[in-house]
Amino acid sequence: MQLGIDVGSLTIKVVLLDGGGEVVADRYLPSQGVPLRTVLSALDELFRDHSPERIQGVSVTGSGGRLIGELLPARYVNELVAQTRSVELYHPEARTVVEIGGQDSKLLVLEERDGRLVLVDFALNNQCAAGTGSFLEQQAGRLGTTIEEFSELATQAKDSPYIAGRCAVFAKSDIVHLQQVGTPLPEILGGLCLALARNFRSDVAQGKPFHRPILFQGGVSKNQGMVRAFEEVLGLGPEELIIPEHQVLMPAIGAAIIAGEHDGDGLKWEDARERLRRAASQKAGVAKHDRLMAREATPLQDSLPVLKRQTPGFLGIDVGSISTKAVAIDAEGRLLAKVYLWTRADPLEAAKECLRVLGEGMGRWLKVRGVAVTGSGRELVARYVGADVVKNEITGQARAAAAIDPEVDTVFEIGGQDSKYIRLEDGIVVDFALNKACAAGTGSFLEEQAARLAITVEELVELALSSPHPVQLGERCTVFMESDLIHHQQRGTAKGDLTAGLAYSIAINYLNRVVGDIPIGQRILFQGGVAGNRAVVAAFENLLGSRITVPPHFEVTGAVGVALIAQEVLG
Question: pTM for this structure?
Fold first, then answer.
């Protein structure tokens, strides 16, 4: 017999093949952050029923397969090669393979040449969960269903709404809105399946062909809602989407097939078992960051004046995806009042409420001479209020920064779902960058992780600043970060060290994914809601070795900036 082992990011698959390529036995187990221990357990269980002495060859594949291969020892096989070989054995008619697992997605384009199935092109997902099983699992958890219930209910959808598949965190905003308007659960789940299928076609395949018939495998292929979604998104007819019998085992089967094609020494299980046991029992070191040291800062919020006589002024409204902000300034540009409210997927209603609150506070004393609007919902709200000035967010944030510090050359701006980087020279924007469709460098990232740790964002800050050894979590998709957090918790990492690591992660994600190669200046202003997080500020300062200034009223600078522009334009 031949043994194939597939060590994935979330699961372990083990198969035994006989000489005819038939599966004699298999094991499919979640790795739970301890892949070595899980492989050892799977093989121990397998060998209770099948003698290891009958094994003539062993191969391993998967993202975590190399270490297992060294310990057994066994041949390591590339996952794409392994999948091609199993498809050739079981479904030689296939011309495209869609494989979606917990954290990985793959597209294989195949051709028959000289009687063999050949891999001619492929595509892999990037560091984003949007096209993976983790995307579906997180949404299922939010909606209070198991993944099995998700599969069944999604097939009942008749008119699924559009849901953004670009990011699992951003999809939550669409889901909340759909729930608020009473959309039935099956329709929401059907919309999520379509979102994942569209994301795979656009972001993973990126224009590569889907020649038919198409093989759909991996853990996500068990979801009947996803089967139907791919048939719809790819426009497939009957029998053009094939689900193989061993849909979650295909890479492991391919590895076993390749093991049988090479001379091997079999498996000396007792020796291999001892090596696996020793390796699994070793506690690996965890990389650490420097401790976060928050500076004693002057109060961030200046007091606002109380109007007692009629004053001419200007309004600025910033309609964001998560929050809506409105401010009033006087004719000299001084801030008179501010309002900060959640948008809740209804930008117009949020803007109305902001204006109502401003009016209650200073209505009869403020003579409005102009209104300016910015933010993602600016066009809609501008029509409603009859805005005199409509500007993009870069312009608004830059104008506020230049007013706060005329010598500023760098602006970090991080909000709930959007991040911006702005370079200034003499108050003029000379370069800028925005976050892509990813929540990893935004406020939503911290909110998601705090919720997983069962703490508030405020508690996260205090824990992070008290941490002596912040753990290095790197830059990861907010969904994948959940797995990293679980693994660290299983190893006994203190919650404070995790929260400090998260503060570093948001700064690292921002610097690498938003700023990139754009130079960072010497006078840095940090604006947007996340600027109020002292742990994130400290992380930026540690990483850059530079002082970061958080201005007063940092959370409404976009609204202040466009109000200042209205004041300049209208006088």
Answer: 0.75
